[in-house]
Amino acid sequence: MTDLILLSGDYPPNDGGVARWCSEIASGCARLGANVQVIAPAPSKGVPTPIAGVREIRVRNARPWREWDSYRALRDGTCRGPVICGLWYPDGLLAQAAGVRPRVILAAGSELMPSKSRWRREIWKRLLRQVCEAADLVVADSEYTRNLVLKGAPEANAVAIPLAVDHERFFPGDREETKRQLGVANKAVLLTVSRLHAYKGHDVVLKAIAASSEHTRRNLVYLIAGKGPHQGELERQVRELGLAKQVRFLGFVPEDDLPGLYRASDLFVLCTRELPERQEVEGFGLAFLEAQASGVPVIGTRTGGITDAVKEGEGGWLIKQDDAASLSKFLSQLVNDPAIFLTAGNRARNRVEQQCTWNHYVHRFTEALESIGNVGTRGREVKPDSRAAQFVQVLKKFLGNTSCL
Questions:
Q1: DSSP 3-state percent helix, strand, coil across the chain (nearest 5)
Q2: Contact between 308 and 145 (Cβ < 8 Å)
Q3: 46, 175, 214, 324: which sits with the fewest CB atoms below 10 Å from its CB?
Q4: Cα separation of 133 and 120, whole Å?
Q5: What whole-number distance in Å separates Cα of residue 343 and Cα of residue 203?
Q6: Domain spanning 3-164+358-399: which CATH class is it, in words?
Q7: Quick one: which of 217, 163, 166 has its CA closest to 18?
Q8: Tens digits of per-residue pLDDT, 40-75?
Q9: Start-end of CATH 3.40.50.2000 domains in the chain
Q10: CATH 3.40.50.2000 holds for 175-355
Q11: pTM
C-alpha cells in the first residue's frame, strides 16, 4: 500500500467518533509509509492540525458544493490509491459515481438504519444496498454494525474491526489531584461524555442516583460532558429528582481537556438505548475506550456495538437497557467499596494496551485492505450504477454547470 485516499464529510477539527476514526486511519497508514490524501470539508471554525505524511484537499463546507468539489477531486486524477469512504452516503455514493476503485466504506451504525422519512425510506434502502454491495469492502466498527450492513446489503463484503483509542493521550494519572482541580475532591466521581440526546440514557443515570441511599448521594457527584437538544429536559429532571447538588453540566469539553476529565473520574457510564425506528443506537462508543485507557472502569448497556467496547471482567460491566435499579447498586458499591473499581480500572488499562490501541487497529485495517487485493485501478473506470449516475446529473442541474464532469 503506497497510496491511499480518504474521503469524508466528517473530519477534524470536527469532533465526534467518525471524525476521529477517519483521522486515526489517515495518520496510522501514513506512519506505515503510505502516501495519504484526505478530501474533507474546510472547517467552519477552528484550524486543522496537520498530520505528518497526510496531504489535505479541503473542499467547500456548504452542501451540495461539498459533494461537487469532492467528486471533482476524485475525478481529476491527482488522487490515487484505494478510496476509504467515511460513510456510505454521501461519500460512498460519490466515490462510486466517480468510478474509482478499490472502494472501502466505513460503517458506524445508525446511518445504516431505515430512514426516518417514510417517503424516502424505500429509496434509501435500495441505494444503501447498491452502494455497499458495489464496494470492494465495508469495514464496520463492531460486530453489531457488521450485522446491520449485511441486513441491508446481504451480498456486501463486510468485516468487523472494533475501534481503538490513543493510549498515549488517554492514560491514568493522579486522580485526587485532578479531582481537586475540578472542585470535586473527596467525592466518588461518575462521568458521562456524550452528546445530550434522549437515547443516550442520561436519565437512567439520574434515576439510579435518585434511587440510591442518602449516604451514596451525599458522597457522589455526576459530571455530564457534552451538549445537545436534550439538555433542557435533563435539567428539569435534575430539579424534579432533587439532584442539584449531585449533577454538574459541563457543556462542551474541548478535546485537549478530555484526558484530564477522565483521570478525575472513578466510574464512566453511558446507558445508550437502541431505537432502530428512530435511527438511534451506539455503533461502538469510543468514549468507553477513552475512559478505560485512562484507568477508569466503565458501565454500558447491552445495546448496539457497546458489547465490543466493554468486556465484562476486563474493566467493565454491562446492564440491560433502562435498568436504573442495577446501576444504582453499582453506585452504592462505588461509594462503599471503591477498591473494586480501582482494580477494575487497572484491568481496563491493561486490556487497552494489549488489544485496543490504534496501532492494533491500523494493523487489522491494512490486513483487511490487503485481503481485497488490487481489485481496481485508476486506469480502469467502473461504470456507475443508474442511481449514482442520477445523483450526479441532479447535482449538475442544481449547479448549472455540466462542463466539469
A1: 45, 15, 40
A2: no
A3: 214
A4: 20
A5: 28
A6: alpha beta
A7: 163
A8: 999 887 677 788 889 999 999 998 999 999 999 998
A9: 3-164+358-399, 175-355
A10: yes
A11: 0.86
